[in-house]
Amino acid sequence: MNLVLVAIHIEASARAVPLGSAMLASVVKRAFPDVVHTRILDLFLQQSAEVCAAEILASDPDWVGFSIYVWNRSLSREIARILRIRKPSLLLFAGGSEATADPVGMLGEGFLDFVLPGEGEELIVEVLGGLLQGASPAEIRRTIRPSPVKDLATLPSPYLDGSLDPSAYSGMLWELSRGCPFRCDFCFESRGTEGTRRVPMERVKAELLHFEACGVSQVFVLDPTFNFDKRQAKAILRLIAEQAPAVHFFFEIRSEFIDPELARLFASIRCSLQIGLQSADDAVLRKINRSIDQKDFEAKVLLLHQAGATYGFDLIYGLPGDTLDGFHASLDFALSLAPNHLDIFPLSVLPGTRLHDTAPEFGLQHLEGVPYTVIASPTFREADMRAAARMAQACDVMYNQGRAVPWFAMLLDALALAPFELFGRFAGYLETHPNPDITALQAAFFTSCFSGRKEAAVAADIVTYFGYSGGLLEEVARNPPGTSEDPRERLRRNTCLATFHHDPRVLLEQLESGITDLEHLACVLPKHACLALLYVDGGDALLRIVSPAEAEAFERIRSSCGPGSECGDVIHFMETVLFPGQP
Length: 583
Ligand code: SF4
Hints:
The structure is a single chain. The chain has 583 residues and is α/β, with parallel strands linked by helices. A hairpin with a 7-residue loop joins β14 (365-366) and β15 (374-376). It is globular and about 85 Å long. The model has no long low-confidence stretch (mean pLDDT 93). Bound molecules: iron/sulfur cluster. The site of iron/sulfur cluster has 10 residues, from loops. Residues 180, 182-184, 187, 189-190, 224-225, 276 line the site of iron/sulfur cluster.
């Protein structure tokens, strides 16, 4: 029998990995080695249902299983509808969080034979076994009950048994646990199971070594409270430092369980940490079965900061009992802790969560279909939700995409504004000055904020330098130059030209010596309009002041740089201007 497991991803990205499907493929392979032939199919939201259905049918399936989440429910439904017409004998089923949350609604749509709620590994073996013995889909449907896997050690590893080839993807999802010891009302993670089940250390080690051998460059760890078991977390971090120092890891952690040693271990490897703050207001959090001790949160984050670890926070707006002012206070609290990024979301009332049951008590109005977001509450009106969404977008553009960490506090102090006030202004500016070059947009915005003040030019220079050099560093980190990299490619990706009002080398010297008062900088920095080439060499962002003629040569060469172009000019330019004295 041919089984096709369909994973529909939001977009092509390092996170677009069909881990759920691979886990099922793995147990099916073990249970029915010569009887069921399983294929995993990666599809994307941007594809039409017709194209997706055609790809599925090209594998000549007998059974098709979908992993259904909030974002792909409607496309999955449409694909299933087409498959039903094109090949009526097909057996169609679904798993995933939407199938778990709303099995009745999904079956009621009329295209699926059955759904597998909850964890699918034991269920799929049972169900396919029944089908192979002649059970009808109706019989199967009647007998299905959720069956969480008690011991993760009993599951085969999809990475190690070849069901999921890490070298075929640009990133990897790495499941280290299931369940959660906490019970946040808006979250699905802890429903249906007690406590946390962890993957045993021997398997963690074997999978890590396999990722390293496969050349995986980034790993997204699936464990919503990675540091809850500090002893195991520290053991894994030490293992990573020894065995996979070049791989970048993404962890979700809880602030309560950070200690100085853990902070140092995080800082010793390549990683980014995400902490769910959600709100800085304890009274609001208590309504959704969470809490916060602001002092403790600050102290724990300070440990990360002092160790040099990279961390970001999540915030939610529209929480029960929260107000727009309360959301602004949470935003300001989060940014006072200098996160590397701040991700802000509207509250979603997901079917199957406790919040879904309590939403009427709180007077939460929300979308009944995906993405289930809150429309309004008694304390957060519809207009407040719109204002918060506008603020969230301004924060994302200025702070996250705009790489504002190095200068945010400095410019904010000089303007004597709270973060929410600055984002409020920036939101308006964004609407009237669209510009895909975010650094240029920010520089122009701050020039207007400091209009008539001597700090305007320094502010623009600071934003320009950190924006463009940060962008180059990120690009090089994403696509490290190979030893035989084409010099044209190196010039295209690793360099950019920027205009400054002051000599950026002098500006950087001042900043590095600890002078961060914008007014003082504006007084001591001599005006010196110039052009600088920013480039990355050996992992560092460097710059070189260039003459207008050199800048013109750079622009000319760069714009004509392409796979078919001559290398001679590029090499000459790089040898004489960018990297003089280097081979
Ligand atoms: S939000 Fe995080 S901590 Fe809370 S239940 Fe979900 S996974 Fe656990």
